[in-house]
Specification:
With about 475 residues, this protein is an alpha/beta fold. It has helices at about 40-50, 55-70, 100-155, 160-170, 190-195, 210-215, 220-230, 260-275, 275-280, 305-325, 335-350, 365-385, 395-415, 415-435, 440-445, 455-465; strands at about 75-80, 85, 90-95, 180-185, 200-205, 235, 245, 250-255, 280-285, 330-335, 440, 470-475, 480-485.
């Protein structure tokens, strides 16, 4: 090339134009669920993951919910400190549309729902017989009362007919037991109403809980907390008779989309956290598997899920049969000596981390319930897997590991650092979606996702994005401008 000549222009193909950097959220790193030494449970979860290819976390949470439901009516667990705890769990799974929430839950709960249908059909037949028997009883009572009136009018002795009426009233046929134990779209009041005079152990479960969380159904956190703690619940009424369910047990399992949870958290989060409801829950927020669910055409088998379902129905049938006989006392499970030492050591470790400088300084409410949730998990695995005697050290250690995994998920959902990082990622993605390199801060405050529009919150997010090297803030006159890096 001669001096003074410009170099020939190079072809543009193969060159990728520079684009703004994407935000990387360190809290979205993979945190797989630990392997657990429980055969029936693990094989069923493996099968669901293999066949449906949904996030494994959804299978684990669905299985735990069913296991809690079928165990809580038969057993309690006694901690090494002497207090007796229910085996009830409260689980909330946050996962996007199309992630496989409903198919996963359906695969693991199918046998339980089928058993529900069977016993409700039996109850309907019993109720028809009850109505006929009660009709006959009532007509006889009317006849006795008519005779009593005649005796009174004539001034005759009423002692014999009065005794006859008392005896007859004691023979009044009782309606068959309400055998509903699975509830979906109900209010808290309707839920406890169904447990009054029926099965005192129930589940409130939904694989699409938007209707429950958005509507007025999900209220009275104090009553849900009371049942979780094993204290029972009293429902006071003005227009009708109040009632009490002193021995209630409730498993709560709600799956929801992220937007539904964020809306719930924005409206009711402070109350739910302040009353202690959130601290009692086990949370999970898995990564989506969409885009990687490649099928090889192999026929799917469901033997492990059938085995899981058969075990669940055995426990449920035992509970229902005992309730029909009027037997309500539950067996109390204890930890072995070595398992007790392990649990006490972990409980003390968690307690030490509740200080302001500790790992749980930001969430003492969550930490205060963590060791008990680990204890409940151990008892549930012990019962469901058919283990004999006291809870073993192996079962306790595995449940502690799973409990810590749920604790990390809680951190992923609620810790201030995580919330700020998620908000920053969301705002950065929104700015990028506008297709501009620069954008006015005033425009952002007016048009960005609604929950991010608070001015003080936006300044925190800007500071975070600047520190991450994703944006620059400049002043153009009096106007603040965000420039993508």
């Amino acid at each position: 090339m001669m001096r003074g000549e410009k170099p020939a222009r190079q072809p543009s193909w193969g060159r990728v134009p520079l684009e703004p950097k994407e935000a990387s959220n360190k809290h979205n790193v993979l945190d797989p669920i630990p392997g657990l030494p429980f055969e029936v449970f693990t094989e069923a979860v493996d099968e669901v993951q293999r066949n449906i290819k949904a996030p494994r976390e959804l299978g684990v949470c669905s299985a735990l919910a069913i296991m809690s439901l079928v165990s809580q009516g038969l057993y309690d667990v006694k901690s090494p400190l002497g207090n007796v705890c229910p085996l009830s769990l409260a689980i909330m799974a946050i996962s996007g549309s199309g992630d496989g929430k409903t198919p996963t839950f359906r695969a693991l709960s199918a046998s339980v729902f089928k058993y529900q249908e069977v016993i409700l059909a039996e109850r309907d037949l019993e109720y028809v017989k009850y109505k006929a028997a009660h009709g006959v009883w009532f007509e006889i009572l009317k006849a006795h009362k008519s005779t009593l009136r005649k005796f009174v009018q004539r001034g005759e002795d009423t002692g014999k007919i009065s005794s006859l009426i008392y005896e007859h009233q004691e023979k009044e046929p009782r309606p068959p037991l309400n055998l509903l134990f699975l509830n979906d779209d109900v209010t808290v009041q309707a839920l406890f109403q169904s447990m009054n005079g029926g099965l005192s152990s129930a589940g409130w479960m939904s694989s699409e809980a938007s209707g429950i969380l958005k509507g007025g159904a999900f209220q009275h956190f104090d009553k849900i907390n009371s049942v979780w703690s094993g204290d029972g619940v009293r429902v006071g009424r003005v227009s009708s008779e109040s009632y009490q369910v002193p021995d209630a047990r409730l498993t709560l399992f709600l799956m929801m989309q992220p937007s539904v949870f964020e809306s719930f958290n924005e409206v009711k989060g402070d109350v739910a956290r302040g009353t202690g409801f959130i601290s009692r829950c086990l949370f999970c927020r898995p990564r989506s598997t969409q885009g990687s669910r490649i099928d090889d055409g192999t026929e799917r088998g469901w033997q492990a899920c059938e085995r899981f379902g058969d075990r669940a129905v055995v426990l449920l049938k035992e509970y229902v049969d005992r309730c029909r006989l009027g037997e309500s006392a539950r067996k109390v499970i204890r930890l072995s000596e070595r398992a007790s030492m392990v649990w006490i050591d972990i409980r003390n470790q968690i307690e030490r981390e509740i200080s302001e400088e500790g790992a749980y300084g930001w969430a003492p409410d969550h930490a205060s319930k963590l060791a008990e949730n680990m204890l409940r998990l151990a008892a549930i695995f012990h019962v469901f897997e058919g283990r004999e005697g006291d809870i073993s050290e192996t079962t306790m250690r595995a449940s502690i590991e799973l409990g810590y995994w749920f604790s990390r998920q809680f951190n992923k959902v609620f810790s201030p650092d995580t919330v700020l990082e998620n908000d920053a990622s969301e705002l950065h993605a929104w700015i990028r979606s506008k297709g501009e390199w620069r954008i006015d801060k005033t425009y952002i405050r007016r048009h960005c996702p609604n929950r991010l529009r608070d001015s003080d919150r936006l300044e925190e997010i800007y500071e975070k994005l600047v520190c991450d090297g994703l944006i620059r803030l400049v002043l153009e006159g009096k106007k603040g401008v965000v420039i993508l890096n």
